[in-house]
Design a protein that fits this description.
single chain, alpha/beta, Rossmann fold, 2 domains
Length: 374
């Protein structure tokens, strides 16, 4: 390896191994070491009583180590007392602590890459409950070898206040998602676009997409759905929605793009799509960083077959089953090149400000798209 890269190491845990291998290929290409790998293999062992241990197969002494983990990967199985369990986010968070311990204070520094933030939606205290996300981050902050923590599209960036001596960087997949959407979409669908927030909590994110989608050839607008809930009832841990109203301009013959950080069960997203279709939207898409599909995809498949929406764009930053990827309406955008560039810049002590928010990139993609049709 070159002098510039001989200290770089990537620990891609099994939960994020596929993404890690793609990142590794980009890194080896950057440094001209395509015959060698930056990945440090790990033996991930689960015992029959539910405990686990992790053993590094190579030394990381005095190395710049990047640990990649996907706490949203629910496909990992282990046997416990004769039963098959699926690893939970809690299991994987504990595994991360164990892997840091396996490094045994030998690395020069450790960076954690956790695209889907552990307990990221439990970002503030409501009643008698623990600050799960903040406590997790604070524990990492207490480890002197952990230099930085990287995540994507954090539900609330305020959780970084739990870290005092550790860098916290929150990245967005906006440019990757919009580039894929623009390149895959007919120009007629791009000329009249309305970006829609499924609730008021997503308005800031939606505004960010709106500002990035900048071209003199496009007439753009923004809208939002208001959810009125019954605060006297709790169903499945939340107050049920009793009214879902759209606030925005005329949607007739327009392309609607729903923006959110994640799709969980998808009920709210599908309801928003249906209402936009009823208001005359000609094309409807959704964009989110994480598509969890916690209740499967059957209802999405049915809605697509009924012509309710045209497509969903998401990333490969968290686990999506292979059979889901075969759906013609689901577009999974690869962010490995973006992550590889982030790692390269950090490893070489270069600025990442341009990677955090490259506000002009989408405008360039749009300009190229329209130039090809004019």
């Amino acid at each position: 390896m070159s002098t510039e890269s001989n200290k770089l190491r990537l620990i891609a845990l099994k939960s994020a191994l596929e993404l890690g291998q793609k990142i590794d290929r980009h890194l080896t290409s950057f440094y001209g070491n395509e015959e060698e790998s930056f990945i440090v293999p790990v033996d991930e062992i689960w015992f029959n009583d539910g405990h686990e241990k992790n053993k590094l197969s190579k030394s990381v002494r005095e190395k710049d180590v990047y640990i990649l983990q996907d706490i949203g990967n629910y496909s990992l199985e282990y046997e416990m007392h004769g039963f098959i369990n699926h690893a939970s986010p809690n299991d994987l968070a504990q595994q991360l602590r164990d892997v840091i311990g396996a490094c045994n204070s030998h690395p020069d520094k450790i960076s954690i890459i956790m695209p889907l933030l552990y307990n990221g939606r439990q970002h503030r205290r409501n009643g008698r409950e623990g600050l799960s996300c903040s406590r997790f981050l604070h524990e990492l902050d207490m480890n002197q070898n952990v230099k930085r923590f990287l995540t994507f599209d954090a539900h609330d960036e305020g959780v970084q206040q739990a870290m005092f001596d550790t860098e916290f960087d929150n990245f967005y997949s906006t440019n990757d998602l919009l580039e894929s959407f623009i390149n895959n979409t007919d120009i007629s669908e791009l000329e009249n676009v309305t970006f829609v927030a499924p609730d008021f909590g997503a308005m800031g994110r939606t505004q960010f997409y709106l500002n990035a989608f900048n071209s003199p050839h496009i007439k753009k607008d923004v809208g939002v759905f208001y959810k009125r809930r019954d605060y006297n009832i709790i169903e499945n841990g939340k107050n049920p929605v009793i009214e879902h109203s759209y606030i925005g301009g005329d949607m007739t013959d327009r392309t609607a793009i729903l923006i959110d950080d994640m799709i969980s069960s998808g009920g709210s997203m599908l309801d928003s799509m249906k209402k936009l279709k009823e208001r005359g939207a000609k094309h409807i898409y959704a964009m989110c960083t994480f598509a969890l599909f916690t209740e499967g995809i059957d209802k999405f498949r049915e809605s697509y077959n009924n012509g309710v929406f045209d497509g969903i764009y998401t990333t490969n930053l968290s686990y999506i089953p292979d059979e889901y990827k075969n759906e013609e309406w689901l577009n999974v955008v690869d962010c490995s090149y973006y992550l590889a560039k982030i790692i390269r810049n950090l490893h070489n002590d270069k600025s990442i400000s341009g990677l955090l928010q490259d506000k002009g990139y989408t405008a360039k993609v749009l300009a190229k798209k329209f130039e090809g049709y004019r």
